[in-house]
Amino acid sequence: MKKLLIFHNQRGFTLVQAIFILVVLALLGVAMMRLSGIQSSTSVFALQGARVYQAARSGLEWGAARAGGGNCAASTIFTVEGFNVTVGCSSATFTEAAITTTVYQINALAEFGNYGSPNYISRRVEMKVGF
Predict the structure, then answer these.
(1) CA contacts within 13 A on the Cβ side of 40
(2) 57 CB contacts (<8 Å, ≥6 apart)?
(3) What pLDDT is stored for residue 73 in this prediction?
(4) Which residues pair with 96 in a beta bridge?
(5) How remote is the C-alpha of 107 from its chain's centroid?
(6) Phi first, then psi: what are they for 81, rounded to 5°?
(7) Rounded Cα–Cα distance for residues 73 and 4 (Å)
(8) What counts of helices (H) and strands (E) characterise the chain?
(9) How deeply is 35 buried, as exposed, middle or buried, from its count of CB atoms within 10 A (0-12, 13-18, 19+)?
(10) Out of 55, 62, 69, 114, which residue is the most buried by the measure of CB atoms under 10 Å away?
């Protein structure tokens, strides 16, 4: 008889526990969804970062090839796989021990998207080469 009274007093406590567990699981699910979205966007930005870096390096190689032929344009813009690449070049001539060397400073800026938009990414690389 005493056992029945104990069960009778605890009738509503299970409902409170169930609601608490459901709320905690819902919050955990929302947190996992946000974490998954952040991880996905991070990997996309890493991939775009690698692609824009390679586009900038191709701009450097293009500028070095042009400079090797004696053509050093101040600024040239072209597109590589959707990336806008701006290549700049400047030169300086040095004479040392009767040997004249021309040193070219080449910089390349690769951009994707418009500045201020969430998918905008850019890389700037620079090198010096002498001939």
Answers:
(1) 6
(2) 108, 125
(3) 82
(4) 99
(5) 20
(6) 50, 40
(7) 94
(8) 2, 4
(9) exposed
(10) 55
Q: What is the pTM of this model?
A: 0.72
In sequence order, what are the residues at sequence separation of 6 or more whose Cβ sits closer than 8 angstroms to the Cβ of residue 25?
none
Beta bridge partners of 107: 88, 126
Tens digit of each residue's pLDDT (9 = 90 or more) over 33-83 = 999 999 998 999 999 999 999 999 999 999 999 998 888 888 889 898 899
- DSSP 8-state assignment for residue 1: -
Structure tokens given for 108: 């390349």
Quote the CA–CA distance of 32 and 84 in Å, as a whole number.
36
- Residues 125, 37: Cα–Cα separation, whole Å: 31
Sign, CA dihedral 49-55-61-64, equals negative
Cα–Cα distance between 73 and 82 in angstroms, integer? 22
Q: CB-based burial of residue 49 (10 Å sphere; 0-12 exposed, 13-18 middle, 19+ buried)?
A: middle
